[in-house]
Write a structure and sequence with these properties.
This protein has three helices and four strands. It is α+β, with helices and mostly antiparallel strands.
Length: 96
């Protein structure tokens, strides 16, 4: 059963552009990862500081491996100074 992830990140007003660039850098390398079924990034049309990843992973092992990749670790090291609040990352399973 695949795992779905919704991850919301909120930039500080003065760091929206920097966070935008940083998050975009995750798209291509993550989409190449084994077990990545879907990996998209949304930006709120009303509040540009609000970013949301919509992800689908083949299984927990694939998602766990994602958190150990160099590209994600690099972004996680840089992101805290750009964020207004802690990221809200939630895992889901499809029930219907």
């Amino acid at each position: 059963m695949s795992i779905h992830v919704v991850a919301r990140l909120t930039a500080r007003p003065e760091t929206v552009a920097a966070l935008h660039t940083l998050l975009l850098s995750l798209l291509e390398p993550t989409r190449q990862e084994s077990g990545c079924l879907r990996y998209g990034l949304l930006q709120n049309a009303v509040d540009p500081a609000d970013f949301t990843f919509i992800e689908e992973w083949a299984d927990e092992a694939a998602l766990d491996a994602h958190f150990t990749t160099l590209h994600l670790q690099a972004v996680l090291a840089q992101a805290p100074s750009l964020l207004a609040v802690e990221p809200d990352i939630r895992r889901y399973t499809m029930i219907g």
